[in-house]
Design the sequence.
């Protein structure tokens, strides 16, 4: 968990460095505070509101616009590896179980092709953020608020690659977390199949809108459906989903709430 959020803290530190230099420890606290706010917002969108508490007033809105880069990088990794997992499972697990017939095969193929197109569009968008931002600034309404988004133009493709690499490493940490807990709860299956199922699960969680505090139900059901193709240990699958949710959502949110309390107490003095 600490490695996971440490990587995210480093990403945040690199992103906001374009508007304000902050220490790694300050970035780490900001990440946990963001989790506390995100717990009750759709797809955790309130996360960045919690993070900017640790920045100066004039830099907060500008930092939120920079967070787009961090979010897109994680989405790209999730979609690319999730799609890879879908292709792998389609031609191995589902093929072996003879589950692809008629309409189900049609919808799965349609979903995969649509997702592939969407992924390509997001990748192109990500590596052309500077050009797109300049284009948007020519729109009169957007031009009034260009001050808040113009820092996006400063990102060089090398920086974007660096953020993408950090997102990829963080994704690997996510996968390792899941594999360790699946092993702990005796969900036994071929390791390669488990890895790609985890990738598909992350794709489902990224695509389906949900509130993090209520994510457990979706995570549990999706886990049962996916890992149920590989193992009959339904209880172990559910326990894995619950513990992942506690480790990656609840514990960081609790820590973040304590940090928020600390900020309020400090400001009240």
Sequence:
């Amino acid at each position: 968990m600490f490695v996971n959020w440490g990587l995210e803290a480093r990403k945040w530190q690199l992103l906001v460095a374009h508007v304000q230099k902050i220490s790694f420890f300050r970035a780490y606290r900001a990440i946990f505070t963001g989790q506390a706010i995100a717990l009750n917002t759709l797809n955790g969108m309130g996360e960045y509101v919690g993070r900017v508490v640790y920045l100066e007033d004039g830099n907060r809105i500008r930092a939120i616009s920079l967070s787009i880069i961090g979010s897109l990088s994680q989405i790209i990794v999730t979609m690319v590896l999730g799609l890879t997992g879908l292709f792998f499972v389609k031609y191995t697990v589902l093929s072996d179980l003879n589950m692809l017939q008629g309409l189900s095969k049609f919808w799965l193929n349609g979903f995969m092709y649509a997702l592939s197109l969407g992924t390509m569009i997001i990748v192109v968008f990500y590596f052309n953020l500077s050009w797109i931002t300049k284009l948007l600034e020519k729109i009169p309404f957007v031009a009034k608020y260009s001050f808040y988004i113009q820092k996006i133009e400063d990102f060089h493709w090398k920086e974007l690659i660096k953020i993408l690499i950090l997102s990829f490493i963080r994704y690997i940490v996510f996968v390792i977390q899941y594999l360790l807990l699946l092993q702990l709860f005796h969900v036994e299956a071929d390791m390669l199949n488990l890895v790609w199922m985890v990738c598909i699960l992350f794709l489902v969680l990224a695509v389906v809108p949900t509130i993090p505090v209520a994510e457990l139900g979706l995570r549990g059901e999706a886990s049962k459906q996916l890992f149920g193709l590989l193992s009959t240990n339904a209880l172990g699958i559910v326990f894995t989903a619950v513990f992942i949710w506690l480790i990656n959502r609840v514990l960081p949110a609790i820590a973040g709430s304590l940090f928020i309390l600390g900020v309020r107490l400090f400001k009240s003095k």
